[in-house]
Design goal:
Number of strands: 30
Shape: flat
Distance between the termini: 131 Å
Strand content: 25-35%
Structural class: alpha+beta
Radius of gyration: 53 Å
Length: 750
């Protein structure tokens, strides 16, 4: 050891406190370490850091130990002996702190211990003996200072193991964490037969193996005494659900994957079977031809057909070629493993695709179908399929007719054929049309019963009062069922004498029973027009006495428009208040200061019983009132926020440029607003027309969802709605004109 090597305090303390017995034990531990390399023996010339010092110390000790072991060799040996383990002191002992006698004692103890051990090397196969079998492990003695344990699962036949039995094992590690050897039986077996397995893999040779057991994902195969893995997908040509049936069998395999370091061997039986199948297929392809009739075995069944093995090559028997009649699944007529006779319909030799047919071996059922089922005849058939547009009825095997959804009932609005018929139900129908060339027959169920619309005029007179149930509600009205299957339309304009109904749900509810009056019956178009408001007398005749001009009253705001508000008066009468008559000069739209549900004082300035219109004014109400009342009214309706439109842009820009710019922009906006007063009536008309156009679009969407009869009723209802909307726009404009004229007259009188 170099004198320049530094000594740590811990090393000195360990030397001083260690007894000879402890030092001897330390020598045993050192003996198990690998010998120092030449680079370690050379060591660094000068010490640098503490880790390098420790390495230098160990290197020097290893060098002296090796020299001592070399000297101890007998001089008269004629055969070269295996190298002795190098003798060196423990890491914590410094050679300079020991005298010559102590050094000799260390050397003698190491030699005595070394003579008791066999010369074994890691990574080699070594002989051993079974000394115990316990806790699922086999204890093996290989002549080293400690034994090794191997799991019983590594032995092919664990039941045949006996204590004292000699076996060969693979030495993986000289010493594990518990101080035992790490041994492996499987690796030893693998090393023995590796060359044979490698040659078979490289040559692609077929090898025999026995199936031992089943594991997750496949099977374990005994191949030359070692375990190989057979994936479940490589057992047979198709997926095999029961792999246990192969356990214990000797089968041919090909090695498809090798990994020596991981002792991984993967084999395949499927590759061997595919080679055999290919030979059979090539032989039968040379014989096949279109139009032949051959026997085959049903190999697999899918939703769209069955695959038939013709003896080395598969053909597809499509579900449409199994039977002339309708079948839900191929398994209804064929089963896996059954032998059937089929006709070869198509054969693509290049792509090796074969189309097979089973029904082609039977007579064609549509021959002479026009004579069997003439138009106008009544038949009884079985419902075999139901779609969104109708039901298919089997007249005989292979011959079906369609009952369209529109031909199922005279009166019921059938939303789906399943509401009328069910699969496998026997139904009566009438033949409407036969198309033998395209294999189509049109049938009708409702034609077997009388048409109730033809006698509807006899049961209901125009002006008659009837009671019905609200069956459906749309944006333009409500459909009321007056008898089973007969619906009439109550248009939204025929629901109230006095109110402007925005949606029928304000008046009626689905499922509610109501009284209606028959307004019109059209049997050919299959529609009935009904009215709710006609059940009671027209109140506008008597309302002229209740709301004469200059009558003061109050109203609740129920709707805010661009150029005014709609208020509800007593007797369920609605009136209109133009924005100019709201007596609030600071607003540009009613929503700036008013809300729905608020009550305001009013005076009638126009009553038009003929056109059912009442125009009211807040401004006229306060004309002769005290200023305090006006201020109180204005305080209850303050301007809620920024005026929409130009004023919004003015205020946003004024916030950026300062108070001066804000005042200037606001002034310009006010002038622009005054300039637009003349066009307010026109703007109101456009806004109302836009709203009514949206309602018309919703009505058209609802019409498309209804049956053909309802579509025609809807078209008529839309015409009436459009006319009413136009009248409402004109009414709003007239109301504003009337209010302005009234103000002008009163100002002139004042």
């Amino acid at each position: 050891m170099s004198e320049d090597s530094p000594k740590t305090t811990e090393v000195e303390e360990a030397e001083a406190s260690s007894s000879p017995a402890e030092l001897a034990e330390a020598a045993k531990e050192v003996s198990a370490e690998p010998p120092a390399t030449d680079s370690e023996q050379d060591g660094p010339a000068e010490p640098s850091a503490e880790p390098e010092t420790a390495v230098a110390t160990e290197t020097a000790v290893a060098t002296e130990t090796a020299e001592a072991a070399e000297t101890a060799k007998p001089a008269d040996e004629t055969e070269p002996a295996s190298p002795k383990r190098p003798y060196r002191l423990p890491k914590w002992v410094d050679e300079q702190d020991l005298n010559q006698q102590e050094l000799e004692e260390y050397e003698q103890m190491f030699q005595m211990y070394d003579e008791t051990l066999k010369d074994i090397v890691e990574g080699e196969i070594v002989p051993g003996q079974v000394i115990a079998i316990e806790n699922g492990e086999v204890i093996i003695d290989v002549g080293f200072k400690s034994e090794g344990a191997i799991s019983l699962s590594e032995f092919t036949d664990p039941d045949e193991l006996e204590i004292g039995q000699d076996i060969e094992v693979f030495l993986e590690d000289m010493e594990a964490q518990e101080g035992q050897l790490v041994l492996s039986k499987q690796k030893a077996d693998f090393m023995k037969v590796w060359d044979k397995i490698k040659d078979a893999h490289e040559e692609g040779a077929v090898v025999e193996g026995q199936i031992l057991r089943r594991i997750k994902g496949g099977l374990v195969v005994d191949l030359f005494g070692v375990d190989a893995f057979l994936p479940g997908s490589q057992v047979a040509l198709k997926q095999t659900p029961n792999l246990d049936q192969f356990i214990g069998e000797m089968l041919p395999f090909k090695i498809i994957k090798l990994n020596k370091s991981r002792r991984n061997i993967v084999v395949s039986r499927r590759v061997v079977l595919e080679v055999e199948k290919e030979k059979q297929k090539q032989a039968i392809i040379a014989e096949l031809d279109r139009g032949q009739v051959r026997k085959g075995v049903v190999k697999n069944i899918t939703d769209f057909g069955a695959f038939v093995d013709l003896g080395g090559i598969d053909g597809l028997l499509h579900i449409t070629d199994i039977s002339w009649g309708r079948i839900g699944h191929p398994s209804e007529l064929v089963t896996i493993g059954s032998e059937i006779t089929v006709a070869i319909l198509e054969f693509d030799r290049e792509r090796e695709r074969i189309s097979l047919g089973l029904k082609q071996l039977e007579p064609y059922p549509w021959a002479n179908v026009e004579e069997k089922y003439p138009v106008g005849s009544r038949i009884t058939g079985r419902v075999v399929s139901i779609t969104d547009y109708g039901a298919f009825v089997e007249l005989e095997r292979g011959v079906e007719g369609l009952i369209h959804i529109s031909e199922m009932s005279w009166t019921k609005h059938v939303t789906h054929p399943s509401k009328m018929v069910t699969v496998n139900e026997n139904v009566d129908a009438m033949v409407l049309k036969v198309d033998q060339q395209n294999e189509k027959i049109s049938l009708g169920m409702k034609q077997t019963q009388p048409d109730p619309w033809l006698s509807l005029n006899e049961r209901y007179n125009v002006g008659a009062m009837v009671r019905g149930r609200v069956r459906n509600i749309t944006a333009f009205g409500a459909f009321v069922e007056i008898e089973e299957g007969i619906d009439g339309l109550v248009h939204i304009s025929d629901m109230s004498w006095t109110r402007r109904i925005k949606h029928p749900s304000e008046v009626v509810r689905k499922g509610e029973e109501i009284d209606v009056m028959v307004l019109n019956i059209d049997p050919e178009a299959r529609r009935v027009s009904l009215g709710i408001k006609q059940v009671s007398e027209d109140p506008w005749i008597s309302l002229a006495e209740v709301y004469p001009v200059n009558t003061e009253t109050t109203g609740v705001i129920i709707r805010l428009l661009e150029r005014g508000v709609v208020v509800e008066l007593s007797h369920e009468v609605e009136g209109f208040v133009p924005i100019s008559q709201l007596n609030h000069p600071e607003i540009k739209r009613p929503g700036d200061a008013f809300k729905e549900g608020e009550e305001i004082p009013l005076k009638v300035i126009e009553f038009d019983g003929k056109n059912r219109r009442v125009v009211l004014s807040v401004k006229a109400y306060f004309r002769d009132r005290e200023r305090a009342e006006i201020d109180d009214y204005l305080s209850k309706h303050p301007v809620a926020g920024t005026v929409i439109g130009d004023v919004v842009a003015v205020e946003e820009e004024a916030a950026e440029t300062g108070e001066a710019a804000k005042a200037e922009k606001a002034s310009k906006a006010e002038k622009a607003a005054k300039a637009k007063d003349a066009a307010r009536a026109e703007d109101t008309a456009e806004a109302v027309e836009t709203a009514e156009a949206e309602e018309t679009e919703e009505a058209e969407d609802a019409v498309q969802a209804e049956a053909t009869a309802e579509v025609e009723e809807t078209a008529q209802a839309e015409d009436a709605a459009e006319a009413e909307n136009t009248a409402e726009v004109e009414e709003t404009a007239q109301a504003e004109a009337t209010a302005e004229a009234s103000d002008a007259a009163k100002d002139e009188n004042a």
